[in-house]
Task: structure prediction
Amino acid sequence: MSDLDLVMQRLTMRGHRITETRRRVLDVLVSMPAHFTVDDVLRQLPDVGRATVFRMMKLLQDLNVVCRVLMEDGSLHYRLSTRGHHHHLVCRDCGKVEDFSNCDVSSLVQQLAASTEYEIEGHWLEVYGRCSTCRALEGTAVGA
Amino acid sequence: MSDLDLVMQRLTMRGHRITETRRRVLDVLVSMPAHFTVDDVLRQLPDVGRATVFRMMKLLQDLNVVCRVLMEDGSLHYRLSTRGHHHHLVCRDCGKVEDFSNCDVSSLVQQLAASTEYEIEGHWLEVYGRCSTCRALEGTAVGA
DNA sequence: CTTATAACTGATACTTAGTATCATGTCAGA
DNA sequence: TCTGACATGATACTAAGTATCAGTTATAAG
Ligand SMILES: [Zn+2]
Ligand SMILES: [Zn+2]
Ligand SMILES: [Zn+2]
Ligand SMILES: [Zn+2]
Result:
């Protein structure tokens, strides 16, 4: 089943309607790169209301099919993802994203719990770097 | 030397002026709890211009005496801190913050680098939980 | 102590991200 | 096909932050 079908299914399962607008927005979302903003979406759907897209992003978050990526400057971008809790490894050059959750955050958290007496209940982690493709390109770049 | 003196020193060292407004804003900042917003500051200094406080927060970031705390909802708060790169452990109940940097993020980063072929250049980590004080209080809370 | 001037300030207007309201439109089941 | 709850778009609003600009002030050279 495609991500798109999955979203449709979850929508109806929860009593939400499949409208023409929702279908159009979803079509745009699946065509988007790894992460995007609401304005990226609006630019491709000028006749769709701003509030509608924001409402939809919130809905999709409730349905656990989008997450938010924290950029290094502190701004938040959206990303289609049907994973539960996970983290992002974002390429600074091309914006490509790797989701990961099989990480060793838990050991870090245990260290912290021991040294601080906090009871730890959540965390947010984003990692930034450059993907192999972009690193390979750098060597051959004009002027490099 | 107090944090406040340190800031003054760094300001003059970089050719910035010590003005009455800056002194007043700094006084408020050091009196603030672990993290705060610009509007928290403005509420205590109604005659200081909004832009001035934002300008000052940016300046203080350049001087490495404030950092930003990512709250769980995605909003950013400010925090006075003269540390370099570090992370936050934020109490969900009282807002208390522990800075930490002696963490095991580097091993996590190495794992990631090995499994993804990304060259890793940065990260952002925030941890949320409840401090020992708030946990102790819970047991004695009315109605608990 | 002046004075020149670069730095600083506050007001205002603007931007970006997101929420609230509300009249109109439409999906989907009876 | 009827109907009402759900969805939509326009509009206006909030919150965080930036840009502009005319007026003020710190500071250091004289
Ligand atoms: Zn995790
Ligand atoms: Zn890349
Ligand atoms: Zn606490
Ligand atoms: Zn670190």
Q: What stands out?
A: The pocket of zinc ion (ligand 1) is lined by residues A 85, 87, 101, 103, 105 (CB under 6 Å). The interface with chain B takes residues 68, 70, 72, 74, 76, 89, 91-92, 98, 100, 103-105, 107-109, 111-113, 115-132, 135 of chain A (CB under 8 Å). Chain A is about 45% helix and 20% strand. The CA atoms of residues 67 and 79 of chain A lie 5 Å apart.
